[in-house]
Design a protein that fits this description.
443 residues, 35% helix, alpha/beta, 2 domains, disordered C terminus, 15% strand
Length: 443
């Protein structure tokens, strides 16, 4: 189906899409929306920036607008009389992605399709109060969902539609136990949709056990990145040269363009952002240790253009859809191929051109070339340019996790901090009690 009109979407949705300037579906939307509208389970793989979010939001909104789903009684489970809960549940690995999905939902859904995003790092009492209004759609990270369900504030037995976004990360070993616990709380007759840019054979097997005869869709088979992204790398002689090269690449940005720089570890993010001049030089920083308010403020400034560069861990590597990111810089060799793919996917979105640069030592070059061969990516080795002089370093204080409000804990729940660690806080980083040296790909 090459047009939205052929998909028999409600007139309201067609009008909203037209107002947003979306006139035709992307390949993943063409392939995934029809089986989702038919009520089939879906396992869909497509590259980052290909429109996966609308591929599950549009059929979900259509389902929510059906007359049989429009009344409050539709959110009351047939088993468990008197209990009301959401009909639609979307799981996301990070709070940033959960917020972004709900923002997109509000853009296209009518006011009657009420929604709520729930995630760790914010006072849970806010979610208690919001759930009293019984939203039809809940978007959330697994840990906070389990906390809300365990406290009795969130009933999941009425869920008939489940989406897992970034499903490969959701079903990773660190998430599997939480996902399995959530699944036991849902209706067994639900429709389940899994979306991701990458699916390993192991994860496909795990996902297959949670679905019934799913429509398997692969718009961009294998591990790859968008063709609109160019790949290149530099080999530097010393650690100091890495920082100078990053600063030099940032100086080449044109008006309105943005850059994202990824580091493997939190302390490197803090140190690099400071050496680049910090926010006074339009350079922001995000790690899993930043509070939710800090992260939202920094991302808001980056989206608005008040910050032109963002230094981050892999917490910002998935799901964030920020326009005009012209380049992604890897401060060192990523831990694994998937990390490389998802970081690179922050640029070149919506078929725009983008560039990704790696800064490597001589010892890392061979590993990188082996990685890109596996990913079937063409890359170019670039000569070092004349390195710009670094600005005066910024004084950046040690960020600390936000304090959680005092609240009753439940014996059958893991602590919220553990849930947040499983929710993508600083993915790709090691806990403090482990070695700080990252595990390299291929070793």
């Amino acid at each position: 189906m090459s047009t939205f009109a052929q998909m028999t979407l409600p007139p309201f949705l067609a009008q909203r899409l037209l107002q947003a300037g979306i006139t035709s579906p992307t390949p993943i939307q063409q392939a995934a929306i029809p089986p989702a509208l038919e009520g089939r389970d879906v396992m869909a793989q497509a590259k980052t920036g290909s429109g996966k979010t609308l591929a599950f939001l549009l059929p979900m909104i259509e389902r929510a607008l059906r007359p049989s789903m429009a009344s409050p009684a539709a959110s009351v489970a047939s088993v468990g009389a008197g209990k009301r809960g959401p009909q639609f549940l979307i799981l996301a690995p990070t709070r940033e992605l959960a917020l972004q999905i709900e923002t997109e939902l509000r853009k296209y859904a009518p006011p009657a399709v009420t929604s709520l995003a729930v995630y760790g790092g914010t006072p849970i009492e806010r979610h208690y109060r919001a759930l009293r209004h019984f939203p039809k759609v809940v978007v959330g990270t697994p840990g906070r969902l389990l906390d809300l369900a365990g406290s009795g504030h969130l009933y999941l037995g009425a869920v008939t539609w489940l989406v897992m976004d970034e499903a490969d990360q959701m079903l990773d070993r660190g998430f599997l136990r939480d996902i399995q616990r959530i699944l036991t709380l849902l209706s067994p007759g639900r429709q389940t949709l899994l979306f991701s840019a990458t699916f390993s054979a192991e994860i496909q097997q795990l996902a297959g056990s949670m679905q019934r005869n799913p429509a398997r869709i692969s718009v961009d088979p294998g591990i790859s990145s968008p063709t609109t992204i160019s790949h290149a790398y530099y080999v530097v002689p010393a650690e100091q040269s890495r920082t100078q090269l990053v600063h030099t690449l940032l100086q080449a940005l044109k008006g309105g363009e943005r850059s994202m720089i990824f580091c493997d570890q939190k302390y490197k993010v803090r140190r690099l952002a400071a050496k680049l001049g910090g926010e006074t030089a339009s350079v922001g920083a995000i790690t899993g240790n930043h509070s939710q308010a800090q992260r939202e403020r920094t991302l808001g400034a980056f989206r608005a253009g008040r910050l032109t560069s963002l230094v981050a861990t892999d917490v910002a590597a998935r799901g964030l859809d920020i326009p005009d990111v012209a380049q992604v810089i890897h401060y060192e060799l990523p831990v694994n191929p998937n990390s490389y793919v998802h970081r690179a996917g922050r640029t070149g979105r919506a078929e725009k051109e983008g560039a990704t640069f790696l800064i490597l030592s001589q010892a890392e070059e061979r590993e990188y070339l082996r990685m890109v061969r596996q990913l079937r990516i063409q890359t170019t080795k670039l000569s070092l340019p004349a390195l710009a002089v670094l600005p005066l370093p910024a004084a950046i204080s040690e960020e600390r996790p936000a304090r959680r409000p005092t609240q009753r804990r439940h014996s059958h729940h893991a602590p919220e901090a553990l849930h947040e660690a499983r929710n993508g806080f600083g993915r790709g980083q090691r806990p403090a009690f482990r070695s700080e040296k990252p595990r390299r790909f291929g070793r």
